[in-house]
Design a protein that fits this description.
Blueprint: H1 19-28, H2 30-39, E1 51-56, H3 64-76, H4 82-88, H5 93-109, E2 114-118, H6 128-147, E3 154-158, H7 167-183, E4 191-195, H8 201-218, E5 227-231, H9 234-237, H10 249-252, E6 257-262, H11 264-270, H12 283-296, E7 302-304, H13 317-333, E8 339-341, H14 347-373, H15 384-399, H16 405-412, H17 416-423
Parallel strand pairs: 1-2, 1-8, 2-3, 3-4, 4-5, 5-6, 6-7
Length: 430
């Protein structure tokens, strides 16, 4: 008969590394820990506009957004209305009907999400006396529109760039514009400042210095004046030392840059792309935008694609609408959730393509997200990173109005705050 041996307790697990070894690793990685904690905070979960509309600064008045909405709706009547246009740009009939109804509401209620009063290319050199007057006058109009509830959620100015010939003028316009706004009250929550023609990190550092100086003079909190950087010179994508200056920007002026915006035509022209071939989908554009994505990944700095100058006007309006809708959708597919619009007739396809993007992807995204939240085995095994992407997709759809917030809450079983934290987990620690 076999002897039954008594069970012995397993020996306690032992490690070979000492506390001193671990402390050495901590010391070595201390600077990395600080870098990851400070330079890569992630997106803050706030609303990002789906587009920026550029108009010459002196053409702005409080009625401009509503006028653009009326013009947009009138333009699509020539092709049978929004539902017909949605079908013409590739939506299936059922989706075209639902999207058209919501886009009509959008064009009547909030046709412009982000408006930039342009003192640069769209304005030109009109002399100091004229630009001084316009900077003051437009700031007065913006303040009045904000006070009356007639301004878009985001509004601001594009000043002239910091090249030697335009630097002083750009700074003076910004100084006048900000000072006049403050003389009328507080700065608008959605105030946006855009710095164009950036070629070097030093120009961005100089802009941060100007912003800090204005904050000191006016008693504003540190960091209140943030700004967008336009990426429209090859020198910002690849510097003379073989390094990408774009990648240095977040650490050069921490907390100052709100977004990088691609400039289609200046960038293409600088690389000798012929006018007929300058486009958002040209390979040189894709390369620049991929570098932009890499440079700001995890920093919380947002991205915007550029514009197309093929406008839906006249006999070729249908062709231009199809092009615009395709380019908007292409940008969305590639992670650029914002772009530029240059004409009222581009608004219908901006919103049609954007709403369709979220509507078409929502069914699958919501099922996968619900399965993940409930730990239910599904056809796709999603990990936390993918769950963040799914939540971010749904959240963006809700924020831009493409997806109904109440329906999303019912489908997922979590509220808007929980969805935001799922998309941006670092916010839970804030």
């Amino acid at each position: 008969m076999a002897h039954i041996r008594s069970a012995r307790a397993a020996p306690a697990p032992r490690t070979a590394l000492t506390a001193a070894d671990l402390a050495s690793v901590d010391r070595r990685l201390a600077s990395t820990d600080v870098l990851l904690a400070t330079a890569y905070p992630g997106d803050d979960g706030s609303r990002q506009p789906v587009h920026t509309v550029y108009v010459p600064a002196d053409r702005y008045d409080a009625g401009l957004p509503a006028d653009w909405g009326v013009a947009a709706l009138a333009a699509v009547e020539s092709v049978g209305g929004l539902e017909s246009l949605a079908a013409r740009v590739g939506l299936d009939p059922e989706l075209a009907g639902t999207v058209a109804a919501d886009v009509r509401d959008k064009l009547e209620r909030e046709p412009i999400e982000d408006l930039r009063l342009d003192f640069e290319d769209g304005y030109g050199d009109r002399g100091d006396e004229v630009e001084d007057a316009d900077a003051w006058r437009m700031a007065e109009r913006v303040a009045a529109a904000v006070g009356a509830g007639l301004a878009p959620p985001f509004i601001g100015v594009r000043i002239k760039g910091f090249e030697a010939s335009t630097r002083a003028r750009g700074i003076r316009t910004l100084d006048l514009f900000v000072g006049t706004l403050l003389a009328r009250g507080e700065l608008p929550d959605g105030l946006v400042i855009t710095l164009p023609k950036v070629s070097t990190v030093a120009q961005v550092e100089a802009m941060a210095e100007v912003a800090a100086a204005l904050e000191r003079v006016h008693g504003l909190p540190d960091g209140r004046l943030r700004f967008e950087v336009q990426v429209e010179t090859p020198q910002l994508v690849l510097g003379p030392d073989g390094v990408a200056p774009l990648a240095r920007l977040p650490l050069a002026v921490p907390g100052r840059i709100s977004a990088l915006h691609y400039g289609t035509y200046d960038y293409s022209e600088a690389l000798a792309i012929s006018a007929a071939n300058q486009s958002l989908d040209h390979p040189v554009a894709d390369h620049a935008k991929e570098v932009m994505q890499l440079a700001v990944a995890g920093t919380g700095i947002r991205l915007s694609d550029g514009s197309t100058n093929i406008l839906p006007i006249g006999d070729r309006a249908g062709e231009a609408w199809r092009l615009h809708a395709r380019l908007v959708r292409r940008s969305l597919d590639r992670g650029f959730y914002q772009g530029w619009d240059l004409h009222a007739h581009q608004l219908p396809t901006r919103f049609i393509a954007t709403y369709a993007f979220y509507r078409e992807g929502y069914a699958a995204a919501s099922v996968r997200l619900r399965d993940y939240l409930e730990s239910t085995p599904g056809a796709v095994l999603d990990e936390p990173a993918t769950a963040r992407a799914l939540a971010g997709f749904v959240l963006r759809g809700v924020e831009c109005g493409a997806l109904p917030g109440s329906g999303v809450v019912a489908d997922l079983g979590i509220d808007r705050h929980a969805l935001t934290v799922l998309a941006h987990p670092k916010l839970a620690k804030g």
